[in-house]
Design goal:
Number of helices of chain A: 9
Largest sheet of chain B: 8 strands, mixed
Oligomer: heterodimer
Largest interface: A-B, 91 and 81 residues
Number of domains of chain A: 3
Distance between the termini of chain B: 48 Å
CATH topology of the largest domain in chain A: PmbA/TldD fold
Strand content of chain B: 35-45%
Order of helices and strands of chain A: HEEEHHEEEHEHHEEEHEHEEEEEHEEEE
Radius of gyration of chain B: 24 Å
Number of helices of chain B: 11
CATH class of the largest domain in chain A: Alpha Beta
Radius of gyration of chain A: 25 Å
CATH architecture of the largest domain in chain A: 2-Layer Sandwich
Number of strands of chain A: 20
Number of domains of chain B: 3
Shape of chain A: globular
Helix content of chain B: 10-25%
Chain lengths: ~425, ~475
């Protein structure tokens, strides 16, 4: 099909293009309690094509582009019509000129994953077994779960000689944990692994079961006011998205971020821990065929690079890095015991914690938190957090303890002072 | 004008019939959903233009669902040829028999009976005034660029003005032993978003536009440019709210988010099957004030989630979920209805042929009341007018609310003071909020620019809305 598309592109006189072929097979299992409710299989082949049209406008070089989906069932005439329409659209797009990624044919990159040596069914069975291993109690249990095991073979070719191909395995899914006493409550969890991290999944499920038990015991919302809060796990991971988002080449070019390389992005007077962030390559190539590698984004609070694809990197005059989905952060300066030495509100579960990279605000509704008033720890539920990273980033303290998933490896928790919490108006 | 059916699906019908017959020889239940969807996405801003198809909106393929009499299995694929039919059936058979390969010891399979289907044949298409494809990329982009230029020229403090338009035109064919149904639908949406900066803080304000139809929706954006630009500049002077419970008026968009996120997800009956929804215990009980009547249904309104039949071949409904404060009914897909021994309500929807069907909302809204927005503002001694919803998250098990809104306008002694607070988190207990509704305006507005997820995935097009409502809400 790739050759067929290239032939039509040549016939239409389209000189600049990128084609991505994805061949994907998956096994999907849907469970209600410990019963398999539905099983699915998918076999899908997709062709994502981008056509580029260099042109001039007011004496300036422009490069327009347009994306089009070519279905494997399309005949040559339908492909021709789709590509022709896309090329016409690309000519209307007057973005500043940029250079496409150039390359050559590279060896096929096999997945470095334990999943690679076995069938999708076998991988699914291992994940399901790990998922349900700790699910043995009567009052707190996995209510429902979904497991997706996917093998993808991708090939990317473009008009500048790029011809790369690679294989990935991904096991992803979600599960809901329910605890029926003393209150009937639930918590939501999701996971994704490129490799068979069965122990990590077992540990996550065990923690989810314990956390849901605690939520069932939480009866009241915290009193409204300013708190020293602890955020941990995926919520801390979400906070880090602020720095990744603000340093994106597209965001910087469009002036949605004031970041400059060399900036002390946590401010000039960091009193807490200065952040170091690495961007981690989870796949060998980006969608543009850029070879991905691990890179240093921030060091001791200083921004070291911008990251992004060919277009915005060209505009900023930097090396294109491709787009990253995973980061690694060295651990912080304090143990959890030290972070918990004085009163705090440790929010372990939100309904949907969000970090807005534009405004710098973070917040969400509290599903479960542990309130330490200096004497005792009480589980609480309800109310919400509404903070601004701009106001607190110079004073963040990170834990020495680690947390890891497919998209984040770094400190387990952060301590942040003076955050507004909406809760009850009175002590209950 | 009527939306044209897909030629691709017409061409594939004989082959799909052969496949269906082969499957029905082997299984007591077999169905095929064929989908051919095409989309267009346009975006312009100060430094960026894009046009093209999006993977989520453009898809072409098939999903087969079979039952061996006890268990269901599904196979999604996007290539079919005469010579491959035996191989296709073999792959489906292998899947049906694969349970032991994926289930460890201690787990078993759910058992379902085969649904009784009444014979039905249907063919229908929705209407549009202006076909975006006929109008052409040139005209659509030129329109958006004109809006963007006007927006940027409004004030030098405006950092950016982004204008987005999207459409999807799809044909779906559902075929089973007793049903042969075909529908073609088109919707189009728009978005106008302004950005302004105050130091490191970037403030945004947006408005959305949607219709069941075509590019006629775009003309509605033009009238809002000036007002939208003024609001983003107002936001530069916004303050942080003092957390607490307040008398609030929700704009129809915020009402829609509460209807959808806080209550709608909780009446999706696949959640009843999993015992994940508190609503199951409250059918027949009061959950809201007398003023509240809530609907969901693909036929309940003409908006982006309007269709004739769902992805499991059930005809679309208009379900009255809450009738004058009393919870009457949930909404349901076919498989959940089989477990609960209820009637499916035409809410079995897939993100595309690639994904499983779940119970999903469609057009979800509160009916209007008898008050005016002005009367509602005049009735408040101290409180807020909430506008510009940003996001929400469901909590069907515990009826907790999490909704984020961009703007709370201060009301003091029955008047807007001009002071605004941002951003705002709404929290609380759903029935407390719904029972506190004391006033509702007459006119109902529905918007369908966004997508709805189940958890963090399975995105489908929905609309939601209602009138202005007055209620007591905890803000933070």
């Amino acid at each position: 099909m790739i050759e067929q598309i290239k032939t039509v592109l040549a016939q239409l006189g389209i000189k600049e293009y990128r084609i991505m072929e994805s061949v994907q097979a998956s096994i999907e299992c849907f469970f209600v309690r410990k019963k398999l409710d539905l099983k699915r299989r998918t076999d899908l082949t997709d062709y994502d094509v981008v056509v580029f049209c260099p042109h001039e406008q007011d004496g300036k070089k422009k490069l327009g582009s347009s994306a089009v989906i070519i279905h494997p069932e399309m005949d040559t005439e339908e492909i021709r019509q789709s590509l022709q329409k896309a090329y016409h659209a690309a000519a209307l797009v007057s973005n500043e000129y940029y250079e496409l990624n150039a390359g050559k044919r590279e060896e096929f990159v096999r997945a470095d994953s334990q999943f690679a040596g076995q069938s999708l069914e076998e991988s699914t069975r291992q994940i399901v077994e790990a998922l349900y291993e700790a699910d043995n109690a009567e009052k707190v249990f996995i209510n429902s779960a979904e497991v997706f095991t996917t093998r993808t073979v991708r090939r990317i070719v473009n008009s500048r000689g790029v011809d790369v191909s690679y294989e990935t395995y991904l096991v992803s899914g979600e599960y809901v944990v329910q605890c029926v006493e003393p209150q009937d409550v639930e918590t939501y969890h999701h996971f994704s692994y490129h490799d068979a991290k069965l122990d990590a999944l077992r540990q996550d499920v065990a923690e989810a079961l314990a956390m849901t038990q605690s939520r069932a015991e939480a009866e009241r919302a915290p009193r409204a006011g300013k708190y020293t809060i602890l955020l941990s796990g995926k919520n801390l991971q979400e906070i880090m998205q602020y720095y990744c988002g603000r340093s994106g080449a597209g965001v910087v070019y469009q002036k949605y971020s004031n970041y400059q390389i060399g900036d002390q992005v946590q401010g000039d007077a960091i009193q807490g821990d200065a952040l170091t962030i690495y961007m981690k390559a989870k796949e060998p190539y980006s969608d543009e065929g850029i070879a991905m590698k691990d890179r240093l984004l921030m060091e001791n609070g200083t921004l070291k690079m911008f990251h992004g694809g060919c277009r915005y990197s060209y505009y900023l005059g930097i090396e294109p890095t491709g787009n990253y989905t995973s980061i690694s952060v060295p651990v912080g300066s304090r143990t959890m015991e030290e972070l918990k030495a004085s009163p705090y509100l440790h929010i372990v579960s939100f309904s949907d914690f969000q970090m807005d990279i534009m405004s710098g605000h973070f917040g969400g509704e509290i599903r479960l938190a542990f309130l330490y008033d200096g004497e005792k720890v009480t589980p609480v539920t309800g109310g919400s957090v509404n903070g601004s990273i701009l106001a607190v980033q110079a004073n963040m303290l990170f834990s020495k303890e680690r947390y890891q998933n497919d998209e984040y490896e770094g400190p387990y928790a952060v301590r942040i002072e003076g955050v507004d919490v909406a809760g009850t108006d009175q002590d209950q | 004008m009527k939306v044209q059916e897909s030629l691709f699906i017409q061409k594939k019908k004989p082959l799909l019939k052969k496949l269906l017959d082969m499957l029905l020889e082997r299984y007591p239940y077999a169905s095929i959903l064929a989908e051919d969807a095409k989309s267009g996405n346009y975006s312009v801003s100060r430094k960026n233009m894009s046009v093209g198809e999006a993977k989520r909106g453009t898809s072409r393929g098939f999903v087969v669902k079979v039952s061996d009499g006890k268990h269901y299995a599904e196979y999604s694929f996007n290539q079919i040829a005469e010579q491959d039919l035996d191989d296709l059936c073999a792959r489906i058979a292998e899947l049906v028999e694969s349970s032991d390969k994926v289930m460890p010891e201690g787990l078993c399979e759910s058992e379902y009976h085969v649904p009784a289907e009444e014979k039905a044949e249907f063919c229908g298409s929705t209407d549009y005034e202006i076909d975006p494809e006929t109008l052409g990329d040139d005209a659509i982009l030129a329109h958006l660029v004109k809006i963007k230029d006007e927006g940027l020229a409004f004030n030098e403090k405006i950092l950016d003005c982004q204008v987005i338009a999207s459409y999807q035109r799809y044909t779906k064919l559902f075929w089973s032993k007793d049903r042969m149904m075909e529908q073609s639908v088109m919707w189009m949406t728009g978005l106008l978003c302004f950005v302004a900066a105050k130091g490191e803080e970037f403030k945004t304000y947006y408005r959305t536009y949607s219709n069941l139809g075509g590019a006629e929706v775009l003309s509605r954006i033009d009238a809002d440019i000036e007002e939208c630009a003024k609001v983003v500049l107002e936001l530069l002077d916004s303050e942080t709210i003092t957390p607490g419970e307040y008398d609030c008026i929700c704009s129809p968009e915020v009402t829609g988010m509460i209807v959808h996120e806080a209550f709608g997800h909780g009446v999706e009956m696949d959640m009843f099957v999993k015992k994940r929804a508190l609503a199951e215990q409250y059918v027949g009980e009061r959950v809201a004030s007398d003023l509240v009547t809530m609907h969901d249904g693909a036929t309940a309104a003409r908006e982006v989630a309007t269709y004739y039949f769902d992805d499991e071949g059930t005809m679309a409904h208009d379900t009255t979920v809450i009738d004058r404060g009393i919870l009457k009914s949930g909404i349901s897909d076919l498989q959940s209805a089989l477990v609960l021994n209820t009637e499916p309500t035409g809410n079995g929807r897939r993100e595309s042929f690639r994904r499983k069907a779940y119970t999903r909302m469609t057009n979800t809204f509160f009916e209007g009341g008898a008050d005016t927005k002005e009367e509602m503002i005049a009735s408040i001694r101290y409180g807020f007018l909430l506008e510009n919803p940003e996001s929400g998250m469901e909590d069907p098990k515990n009826w907790g609310i999490q909704c984020m809104v961009n703007i709370a306008r201060e009301i003091r002694d029955g008047r807007l003071t001009g002071k605004i607070f941002s951003p705002i988190v709404l929290t609380g207990y759903v029935p407390d909020l719904l029972k506190s509704i004391s006033m509702m305006s007459e006119n109902v507005y529905l918007g369908g620019s966004g997508m709805c997820g189940k958890g963090y995935k399975e995105w489908v097009k929905v609309s939601d809305g209602g009138p202005y409502i007055k209620a007591k809400i905890r803000l933070g």
